[in-house]
Specification:
Layout lengths: L3 H11 L4 E17 L2 E21 L2 E9 L7 H14 L32 H11 L4 E17 L4 E17 L3 E9 L7 H14 L3 E2 L4 E7 L1 H13 L3 H5 L6 E2 L2 E2 L11 E4 L33 E5 L2 E2 L6 H6 L11 E4 L6 H6 L3 E5 L2 E8 L4 E6 L3 E5 L2 E6 L2 E5 L1 H7 L2 E2 L3 E3 L11 E3 L2 E11 L4
Parallel strand pairs: 7-19, 8-15, 14-23
Antiparallel strand pairs: 1-2, 1-4, 2-3, 4-5, 5-6, 8-24, 9-10, 11-12, 11-14, 12-13, 15-18, 16-17, 17-20, 18-19, 20-24, 21-24, 22-23
């Protein structure tokens, strides 16, 4: 496999398009799986994916062709470059066309080799899990570590490189016939994963499930730990697209414009993304082989800045590629690959339980889907742990529910937000792992029906 930098230079040299973008990503990953208190599988793999974007300018029109490949055969570079150019020539004019951004020379790390991972990254995790395997509870789970080394280059002179480590661990504990609980953690290199603490939390939740309480559908005061808040806020962030709001078909639309400036809550909550967030760092520039309403191939190499999407309770920004920003006289903004919600108190979820007279503790969400884009109404299921809280203590496990809620409405109705902490979303973990969220208290969370799912 030739170096990624050589792929870049050969693509740019062979391209006959007016402009060319090339992205090469070398991926190294390791995984570990266990079931029924014993390790079952582990593995390490490496792969390369690369994309050639050709731009053909024809007067005021720009035509784009994008072709991706996972081949490591250098003899196939010529064919992929030609296919990309052919796709551009046959494509309709791009509606997000802009001049490509200029470059400033090679960064200091441009010539560095790909970085990788191996099964040794799980050594501490496996050692700590072994202690849990000696217990009576049955443990199931999966750990994954991936390191992506990405190079971006354009014929306009852009050169960028970034290395992204991404790790996660999920543990599901089962006791008896019915009791089940889930915990998870996101990480960069696993050194900061506290497995004994995760196992202790699992054991506590399984203890709670010794008592079973059946409740009907309805609206309940509900405590959302950081993981469930993350699953809801991620979907919110994914829908904060400026074009859709301007054109009147998203929950951020209003007559004659968008809902920028609308206050959602008196709590000083700020939802933001920032490439340099501590322990949640992500790529500080745009690198994409396809355009959407929130990102554009013409913006490849553009710096990604911190953006407060909601600032101290008020809708503050929407995502605009450069072309859309120019069209609607807005500032370009891109969602980074992380999401944080700050501005709450220093309360933990345990503190919030202790202050609850009667309500539910909702530990995980599952199968979240959009019902109504105009209001951002979502539906989904609870799973592996809904608990009844009475007089400041958890008194038992509750049946599962289907819920119907809008993240926007939840921010309007949130009664309390606690301390922000790094967390792993359960539903969106495969797509979005870098989050930090507070626990939240919702006075009337809508459990729309009882679910028979376990």
């Amino acid at each position: 496999m030739i170096p990624a930098q050589e792929v870049v230079e050969r693509v740019l040299a062979e391209s006959k398009a007016d402009e060319t973008i090339v992205i090469v990503s070398d991926e190294s990953e390791a995984s570990l799986r266990w079931a029924g208190n014993s390790m079952t599988t582990n593995g390490v793999s490496s792969s390369r994916s690369w994309t050639v974007v050709s731009i053909v300018r024809d007067g005021s029109a720009s035509h784009v062709g994008s072709v991706s490949s996972s081949s490591v055969d250098p003899d196939e570079i010529t064919d992929v470059v030609a296919a990309s150019a052919a796709a551009a020539r046959s494509a309709p004019p791009a509606n997000d066309a802009m001049p490509l951004l200029g470059g400033g020379g090679d960064p200091d790390d441009w010539g560095d080799a790909s970085e990788g991972t191996d099964i040794g990254v799980f050594a501490g995790l496996a050692r700590d899990l072994a202690g849990g395997f000696d217990g009576a509870d049955r443990l199931y789970g999966f750990a994954h570590h991936q390191v992506d080394s990405t190079w971006l280059a354009t014929s306009a002179g852009i050169r960028r490189r970034f290395v992204q480590p991404t790790g996660s661990v999920e543990i599901n504990g089962k006791r008896g016939a019915d009791a089940s609980a889930w915990v998870g953690a996101g990480t960069r290199h696993f050194a900061d994963v506290d497995v004994p603490e995760m196992l202790a939390e699992l054991s506590t939740r399984l203890d709670w499930a010794a008592t079973r309480v059946d409740l009907p559908a309805g609206r309940y005061e509900t405590l959302l730990p950081p993981s469930t808040v993350a699953d809801l806020m991620i979907y919110l962030a994914w829908t904060m697209e400026g074009r859709g709001a301007q054109e009147g078909h998203t929950a951020f639309s209003r007559a004659g414009g968008t809902r920028i400036g609308e206050k959602l809550t008196d709590l000083p909550l700020t939802l933001y993304s920032a490439p340099d967030a501590p322990d949640l760092a992500c790529a500080p520039f745009v690198a994409t082989g396809a355009s959407s309403d929130s990102i554009s191939i013409f913006d490849n190499g553009m710096p990604i800045e911190r953006t407060d999407w909601i600032h101290e309770g008020t809708i503050n920004a929407l995502a605009y590629p450069r072309a859309a920003a120019q069209e609607f006289s807005e500032t370009p903004a891109v969602l980074a690959d992380n999401l944080l919600l700050a501005g709450g108190s220093d309360a933990t979820i345990s503190d919030m339980v202790a202050k609850t007279e009667r309500g539910l503790l909702l530990t995980t969400l599952w199968y979240i889907r959009e019902v109504d884009p105009a209001t951002l109404l979502l539906t989904g299921l609870t799973r592996d742990g809904v608990y009844l809280v009475e007089d400041g203590a958890v008194t038992g496990a509750v049946n599962n529910f289907r819920f119907n809620e809008s993240p926007i409405d939840l921010l309007r109705r949130v009664a309390e937000a606690g301390a922000t902490e790094r967390t792993l979303p359960r539903e969106w973990k495969d797509w979005f792992t870098r989050t930090a969220m507070p626990p939240m208290r919702i006075p009337d969370f809508h459990m729309s029906s009882v679910s028979q799912a376990n």
